[in-house]
Fold each of these.
Amino acid sequence: MAKLSKIIHLSLLSMSVFILITQFSRIGYARVIPSTNHDFLSREEIEWIQKNKTVSAAVKSGWMPIEYKIESEPSRGISVDYLTQISALTGLKFKIVEYSQVFDPTEVQLVTGIVGSTNLNNFTKTSQPHLRIPYAIYINKNAKSEYRTVTLDDLNSSKVAVYKNAPLGNELQKIYPSMELTYVDIADEAFEFLKNNTIDAYIGNEWVVDYHVEFHRLAYAKKSSTTRFESMVSMAVRSDQVILLSIINKSLAKIGSNNPKILDYWKTPVSPINSLIKVLLAFLLLAFLGLAVKLFSIRKKSKSEALENQKKIWNQANYDRQTNLPNRNFFERKVKEVILDTKQNDSVFAVLFIDLDEFKYVNDVSGHSVGDQLLNQASKRISNCVDDNDFTARIGGDEFVIIVPKMKDVLFLNGLCQTILDEMRRPFKINDHEYYISASIGVSLFPKDTDSYEELLSYADQAMYQAKKLGRDRYVYFTKEIQSKVNEKVSIANDLRLALTRDEFELVYQPIVDLNTLNIVKAEALIRWNHPDRGLINPDQFIGIAEESGLIHSLGKWILKQAIFDLRVLHQHFGANFNVAINISPIQFTQPQNFVDFLQEIDTKKISPSVVCFEITEGLLLAPSEVVTNTDLLPTCATNLN
């Protein structure tokens, strides 16, 4: 009998594992995916795909069934299935990386799950969301038996839980002022309140909450009705990847928002616990009382592990792994809480945006291991500078923010900023070496500067960049003058994109004269912009903006192409040995293929490479990246552009 019991236990365990693996191995819907068809793409887009092949896509790890990841398993969910379809349509391959709110623009090209009006710096959202998910009302059916269907109007004077980070709460408060809202971080909190009758209803994302209810077997929870409100999920493409954005937009338009073939697979969750119980019931017919006790223990352990997984996913979604500080997601919720509290108390609070100066240099020269240790030490120093009531988060690679609620006065804030600067100047001791950095701090004030969360963070960011322009290692308060300069840069960047398509640029040539013979022996190609409204614009007014926005690559390709055309004319007047110098931005060396294409083109045109000189800055050679050192271009001239 003991042997039989052991066999049954092993069988149950094997089948349980099989069911769990089956549930969590949903990579995509099991249907025939259409073969690659480029009819809907332009020639330029097809060429881009052929050159780039792989796109890095950031996917969230704790948002079932939209997109999620369990331990070491691959990422799954509806958004991942959309990537699979885009891949089938275009031939692009997607390298999935874990979503961490803010990315190095050189590492991530696409983000799959942007909710509502959320915006990411350096990323542009797709023209249409690929998912529109209704919000639904969930009640405790034991407590609300008097209702057949509960609507929003029924809840006007009731206690209702909503997700803290969603804009739904503000919308409900406007329409139903008598509704008492309870804000929660995760669904577990809401359902615990619902179970204890602390709230009357929970309004949440229908697909996500349905999965939660089914997975945790919440028998008391009932979806009563859906609302007219919905959550929209979009993808976002890095702002300098204009062609990729067009490809994704066209692909999503072809697949369609809320594609039924994808959604049908994910809308109805198959709970591994429910499936396990059905199997257990069949085996209970063959088992005895001792086996039943054993199965109860297994079930309890499975549920405990599921809850532990849920907590682990929540921590991953809200805390930075490197520094263990709250991440941008947590920061957004916190700052919105402080805004509400500040409005009620008629007080003032500040946001400090901190960026580490020279961190990238230390990281590149000394390695990521040293960079990680420096970040850990820097985060501890910053945390030690603030009070218990202040809130510190890491929102990017070397970017930190501090919320200073109920600020005492400006002198106190000045002292805090100066203390942080002093701490950052002290040497960082890592592996018996000392490393020196500094910090630039931007400060915005609520409600003096703005009463909007997005603008508050943006203004602090702008003030931080102003601190860097003024020489770094300082703090700057946001002013309207800073905003005006930013708006001017944005306007020029937008016009730059149009200028490339409207043929508004021209090359002029500055002659270089041999003083011995007074003959013109060479010339330097200089770009000018004939703006339709601003008139002639010199390069010092737009080259820097082109570099920051990533447009320098397209502009550089145009210059090289135009120079080839002009060389043939110049050689007719000054001879075949006449030399032309072309200024090259250091950023252009991140795409050396453009130079290779140029050299191939002048070879095709029978132009000698010796008549072309690339002028680069000393900074490119003094602090070269791996891309630069591996770029072998001849001829080159290492000269100062000034």
Amino acid sequence: MKKALAPKSPDAFGIASPSPLPIVAPAQAANAPTHVTAPAHRPLGLVMLDHGTLGGADLVRALTIQTRHNARLGDILLSHGMAREGAVMRALAAQFRTSVLAPDCGTPDPRLIETLGPSRWLELRCLPWRRLGAATLVATADPQRFFHNQAEIEAALGPVALAVAPLGRLHQALAECRRAALRLAAETCVAEAESCRSWNSRRFSVVLGLVFLAVVAGLIWAPGPGFIVLFSVVMLALIAGAALKTAAAVSQLTRPRRSATPVSASRRRLTPRKPVVSVMVPLYSEPDIAPRLVRRLQALTYPRELLDVMIVVEENDRLTRVALAQARLPRWIRVIPVPDSTLKTKPRALNYALNFALGEIVGVYDAEDAPAHDQLHRVVAAFDEGGEDLACVQGVLDYYNPATNWLSRCFTIEYAAWFRVILPGMERLGLAVPLGGTTLFFRRSVLERLGGWDAHNVTEDADLGIRLARHGYRTTLIDSVTLEEANCRVWPWIRQRSRWLKGYAMTYAVHMREPRRLWRQLGWWRFLGFQVLFLGTLIQFLLAPVLWSFWFLLFGLGHPLAESLPILAAIAVASVFLCAEITNLSINIAAVSRHGHRFLRPWALSLHLYFPLAVVAAWKGLWEMIASPYFWDKTTHGLHDSVPQPALRSA
């Protein structure tokens, strides 16, 4: 957590000066009451007025906000900078006739935390501190929640004595005393049957080697039939992939267009009580991008008292943490340090940070993201309209640097086709939706039920999309844009794509461990879509050279099928190639014909030269499945980081 949450002096909590309230300390707490009952209390605002720590105008403003959003008054005061944290803590103590936890009160007793478990104490916003005589000292950041759950707490601990403390202090204390357990849970929270952490690289390398030898032997012994087998496999994948894209495109592009409703009006109608939204932003070795990230997050229009942004960093990433400390973060942005481990993946960091999230809805952004200002409002509305089986809302990813070079143009076209045509079409067809890595929002309860993300999968997003579908949940896409930085350098592009394709292969292998069970959970239609999308994509990239070999015929060079391929079969093959290319070109042009990307339409023809790079990436990823299956090939951000402000305002 950020340094502001872990002060070394009492001043940081605002209680260094003399207070009219007693401070609970070890020696005093032994005489604390052995039973706590909910007291009749004065409103917090009036208590702070009496203390002189809140002005009347600020109180009126805070109460007006509370009427609209039904948030806690203390959260409103802190989020809008109307009061200091120490002042709010002292007022809460006075309001509930208790005391503020002393800064020198030591650390909690881990054995007491195990009574309900770390997750439940985090949910209660309480933490049992230590046994003091007949009572157990319990620190809370939310006294009302404590009293609401008092029976459960006393059933676990017996008589209790209450003290108030900042939530950040509770989080830090829990992270310190349960460090090993939280770190282990972040790496193993997904059920082993649905995780790739038990991946056997040696067995895979043996199987892959045997398959390779069999293919080579077949081509040497019978080159014609052997090539026909390979050619048939890749042609089947090509036809199936083209059919899926065509069906998705037709479904999406022919849908009735809905008239846009102003966000503010629709939100007031749909959501009388807005939920708290937690947004996790994982960073790693990105000190330069931190200040720009903060500025973009501050552009979000969601109510500050209901917004909980967590910047998730590795604890040994000192450069990024220093940059964040210098950025003067607002109170609604926190830094969550992730304990060091040999496994350093984005999903592991997200699993760890999820423990400390405050929201009912949990989202994920990438370091370079620039989301539309009203995006969180639209996300909340989508969940309101979607029903209980809607577990995930996926936004549209677009790029703010498409004109940097040829690679960035092709990348933008590819993503426009994927997020504006293919994925929405797949949703409309009732297929399982593989998620993108950012602009994702989940019902927290569902996410926790499924164990979060697979910490060992390098495409944790696609894997989670399939797991959601397997367990009966839906994903929907909304037309709200997040701008990102297109990867526009050749080798970094190959490295990034190799990680994605390696993750696709791992995801396919994990979910196909029990094909019959997967069939039962997904149903035949989604099972077929899963095969076409994952296995078909891998086959097309790995065996693309088989299709390229037909270019030899144009130059009069030899080919295994030159003599054995009948003229009608040759015409059929050429027709399949032509139809597949027309399908891809049509989808790509349609995808960039709106949303300010029309200038990219002529460049859609050049994707013939773009996708061969993915073949190199696919073979690199295949090798890494043997040599380093959990290696996360990090993408560097912030190289072409210029966001046009008008684009940020559009959805």
